[in-house]
Structure formats: C-alpha cells, structure tokens
Amino acid sequence: MREHPVIEARGWGWRHAGRRHWAVRGLDLVVNAGERVLLLGPSGAGKSTLLAALAGLLRAPESGDEEGRLLVGGVPAAEAPGHAGLVFQDPSSALVMGRVGDEVAFGLENRAVPAAEIWPRVGRALAAVGLSYPLTRSTEQLSGGEQQRLAIADVVAAAPRLWLLDEPTANLDPPGTALVRETLRAVLGRRDNTLVLVEHKVEPALELVERVVVLGAEGALVADGSPAEVFSSHAPALRAAGVWAPGPAPERLSPPRTGGDPVIRAEGVSVRYPGTEFPAVESADLAAYSGQVLALTGPNGSGKSSLALVLASLLAPSAGSVRFLSGGPPGPYTKWRARELVRWVGTVFQEPEHQFVASTVEDELLVGPRRAGASSAAARRRVTELMERLRLTALARANPFTLSGGEKRRLSVATALATEPALLVLDEPTFGQDASTWDELVALLAEQRDAGRAVICVTHDEQLVGALADREARMHAGRLTELAGTRANRSLAERPSGAAALG
Amino acid sequence: MARRPSGEPAVRATSTLSVTASLAGSRLGRFNPAAKLAAAAFVIAGLLASASLVSASVVLGCELLALPVAGVAVRPFLARTWPLPLGAAGVAVANIVASDASPTTIAAISLRLLAIALPGVLAFASTEAVDLADSLVQQLHVPARFAYGALAGLRLLPLLGLEWDLIRRARRARGIDAGGSPWGAASLFASTVYALFVAAVRRATRLALAMDSRGFASRGPRTAARRQVVQAADWALVGSSAAVVAGANVLAVLTGTWHAFLG
After folding, report:
1. CB-CB: which of B177, B212, B221 is closest to A81?
2. CA nearest neighbour of A93 among B213, B193, B129, B205
3. Which of A38, A137, A144, A352 would disulfide-bridge A100, Cβ 3.0–4.6 Å?
C-alpha cells in the first residue's frame, strides 16, 4: 500500500463563519513526507487559514463552511487536531503556562505521553532550541525571541509529522529574529520533517525550504516549484501581487531632506512606569523638523515606543519637557485637550484596531475633523479626497474591523491624516504588511513629508529606514545612543553644553 | 519531601515565581492544594452556621497556633493578611455605630470573619495557580478543559491593564477624551470598557486556538506531568480542620452560646 502524502488538498475551500467571501477556494496541493514548503501570497490570500486548517483548528460547520477535502496523513485535518505542530506569529498570546518546563510539558500531557517520559523529553526539547534556563523560569521573563524559541521547543517535544510555522519572526526585533532563525536552522537541519512555512520576508527563509508555493487571491494556486523556478519565472508578477520576492532592497525615492523648522522638541525626557526598576526612557533630547522623516529605532524594550508616546502627547513624561513649536493652543503640550491634539498631531498605532471607534470607514475618517471642529462640508470634502487617494472609496460603508490587514493599515494612516496635522507619529507602520502595501505606505509618507509635515516612525524595518528616513535616532536600554542623518551635526552644535544631546 | 517519582524535577521546591503564591515556599505550600481547600471549606461551613464568641475564638486560636507548625513565618504572613484585621475592625465599628447588637455579638461577628477568611487566604497564598489546577483535575476531577482554560486565562489578566492604557491613548490620539464633563467621562468610560471587552475576547480566542493546536482540543486521554498526591499529612490537615470546627461548635453548644446565625 502506498503511503499517504502528508498533505493532500483536493478542491479544498474554506469560508469563515459570517463571511461572504471564501478565504481559500479550489485548492489542489500535495505535499509529501520530508518536503519543506514556503507558502507565499498577498495579505488576504488565505495562508493563515490554510495553516489553521492543517493544524485541525477549523471545524465545519461550527467555525465556517468547507468544500472539497483536506487530508493530513490521509485523515481529514479537522479530525486530527494536535497531529501537526503550529508556531504562531505572536508568542505572548500563545503561551499557556507560567513556567518554561510546564509550557513544554503541556503539549505532551495533551497528547497523552506517559508521565515518566514527559520530563526527559521536555529537557531534550529545551536543549535542542538552546534555552538553558531552569524549568521553573517564568515565561513572562523571557524576551520575545526566547518565547518563540519556547514555542518551537514545544513542537520539537511533540515531534509531529508536520511542522507549520505562521510568520514565526513577524513580531520580533532583529536580534530576536536572528535567534529564532538560528534555532529553526538547527532544529530542522537534524530532522526529517515536513514543513510548511509562511513568511513575509522571503530571502532569509529560503535556506529552510526547497519548494515554494504561491497562493493568489482567494487561495488559487499561482506558482509551485523550486525557489529558483518560481522566482525567475514569476518575480515581477509576485511583487505586483504583494509578495516579498528576493531581490535588492527598495531604493530611496529621494535624497535625504534637511528639513525646516523644529515642530517638536523633547528635552531631558524620562519615562518611568510604576513598579519597574529601570526607567523606560532616560533623559532623552530629541527634536523633529518639518519636511523630514525621523526614524526611531532600537531593540524591543529599548524605550522607543515610550518616547514616541511622549512626543505624541499620549504619555506624560516623569521628568523633562516636550514643547510643540509649530502652533497649537496655549498651555503645556502634555495637557492639551484631545480635540486640540488631534488637529496638530496624528498618531498611528501598531495595531490599527485599537484606533477604530466608528462603524463605517467613512465615519471613522470623519471622527478626527469633527472633533477638531471642522465644518461638516469641509470635513466631508477632506474625507472624500482621502478615500480617493488611499483607495478606500469602495469601502466607505464597510465596517473597519472587517477590512483586510493592508486595508486596516491604510485606514489607520488615513485617520491620522484627516486633520492635516503638522506632526505624524507612526508606531511600526510597515509591520506585517505585504509588499504592495509597503510600497504604498512609503510613497504616502514621503508625500506627507514633502507637504511639510514632520514624520516620526518607530520601526524595526531596516528597509523602511533605508528607503524613507532622513534621520535615524537609535535607542538602547532607555537612552538615545546614536543619531545619523542630515541634522546630527547641526543639532549637536546647537547645544553648547550637550555632550549627550541628540537632535 | 519525596513526592515526585525520580525523573520529575522538584519544581515546587523553588517555586517563588507566581505573584499569587507568596507563601508557596513555606511548609504550607507543600500540602496538596485540594486538601487545603477542603480544610478551609470545613471552617467556612462550620462557622457560617453559627455565631458564637466561643466557636469563633476557638477556631481562630487554633488557626494561629497552627501557623508555626505549617512553617508560615511572621513577616510574609503579615504582608499577606494585614487587610483582614482591618476588615474585621471595620465590621465591628459599623455594627457599634449602626446596630444595637450587644458587644459580645459584635465581637463574635468580627472574630468569625477573621476565622473564616484566614484559611482561605492562606490556602491561595501558599498555592501556585498551576498546582491548584493540577490538583482540581487530579483529586476533585474537575474537567481539564475548565481548569487549564481558567489557568491560561489568569495569565492574560495583567495584560488587560496594559490594553486599557493602550485604548485610552488611542482614543486621545483620535481626539476623544472626557472633555471635562461628567457625561463625557461616563461615555468615554463606557466606550473604553466595550473596546477592552472586544480586545479581551480577541486575545482569549487566539489563546484558545494556541491551546487547541497543541492537542488540548482532542477528547482523548490526557496524562499529568506534575502529579499531585494526597499524603498522610494532607489527610491530617483536613481531619484536624474538621475536628477543630466540630469541637468548637460542641463547646459553643455546651456553654450555651451557640445559636443559628446566617448573617
């Protein structure tokens, strides 16, 4: 008898409960034992849906409608939950237990591994991913990269036939990403596992796979073959479809700008959260100038997001001062009323959902101008124009929460632009975006800068810094450590006393 | 304490990590969690039925005498339980001011409150959440889905505080704040609570998926990595709790101070 393929999809389709469109439809795919597949596609192509289904997490009719067949090892995927090992994007929302050892043991208990075997297997799995902490180490105290290695250890311990990795490095900073890639190389290099990997950043993932499968809209198969075949014959089409194909980093749209007048200036700003030992930000001096993009970079936990919140007047510093120098109401910047703030400063959060307060895209865009006191006619004009510019017109009546990832991001940036603020503060604007949305965002932000706004981007995305930033301020352990770009020298000279002064 | 078969790490011996279990390192922390709950339940049941200065003070006295035996040191004990005497004093003051109860009744009510609350607080303060979940499943046969689901949910609670701050900031960034009026404050609060609720459901859904992807969904058998055993000391704890409560009630009846009181 012939052995079953590890994955066999025949005309398979899935529609999530309550949705009109199919996330995946008409998928035919066979993956044999030992094959390592990179699954690509634009955002909304159903990659995560396919992975969840393979992990046995989608069950019809409770969670949606199914058509065709999806078999894992010859058995319908939904009947075999736990037979595949799945690593999610965000490790912090996937951890179950408070202690490292218990976390790995949890998966083994569920799979009814005999109690006497559990702890030896936990120990071997933790060693395999290079986590050398005691078993009682709190999972909360691990860095994001370490938490993701713990999630990988769980899959190692369970030793499933099928490994599923759903953008395992998307939520991590560059050091965390490097750590997880190294771990995956070590763990996968030794084993004869079948792997399906979803990853936006294709190039570093290529060393882990020998086959590339590209899904198009609604999950139709666009390309399938070796990386060389797929990327040589489909490269432009892939990029057009929003897939990050390997190739040179995107080029700068324009030379770095010197910028105009200062729009915001922070002096000696410190941020200390209650109950923490070290300040998140320590005596930071930084300014942003009109017509210039400032990138604020540094590892996770270095304080860059806290500093950005202070610059956006969303967090009061525990020491130091922030002044808005480009107009605005009287009174200290940190005490401005929200309806005043929204006229002068636009902030875009990392997760767009946090900012959505209305039930249609159009109303969402009208919130800012209305709060800022614009006349109804002026607000409508501005919103109509913005929706045209950001290709949201067709979605005007849609609920913001039902948009795709890229659409949500466009909408959240649009809400910040609706009041034509002098300062734009964006937290990881390109996070998790496909290549088309990325191109669009970079062009849009360049346009905002050239319209004379000061733009501050908190980011890990080195390509974004390369393509857009005019200045870069790096943070480490709460301190600004380095400033590169066209303002560095001038601003240091501006402050005669300031050996530590940046910007 | 030879509780774990060889090959299992002595996880509990160094367990001082959990914020809920500041007394987990004491000897009390080594008792079976279900046994501690049972002992506390006897006290609650036995004292809720009656209000007597005699029974309340006998039980409270025995509890305090048992503390050194259970290896509970003074300082961590006070750090954990200082609100209890304050609460009891508050109840006493309220009764003195607002009711015409006799001083004996008021003292009985306050002491009873202390005697009932103390074992419960100690049981939780000396138990790691994960040990409690294990014990609920292994000794009391609570479904694993419920016990470990609740355990994982508990881990998300501190994140809700961060989420609350994030939502408030995102609203300020959109131009929405209380605006200085009570009506504005109330409507901002309501909309923030709603957003928090939505965020909590999304987080919980993601966590449930993560648990199911690790085989938690399968209806098949499950093994236990951390065996919670019931030993002679655990039976002794439950037995002495029952004996003390029963003895205290008998004493109350004999001294004529016992009367049914469910308040």
Report:
1. B212
2. B205
3. A137
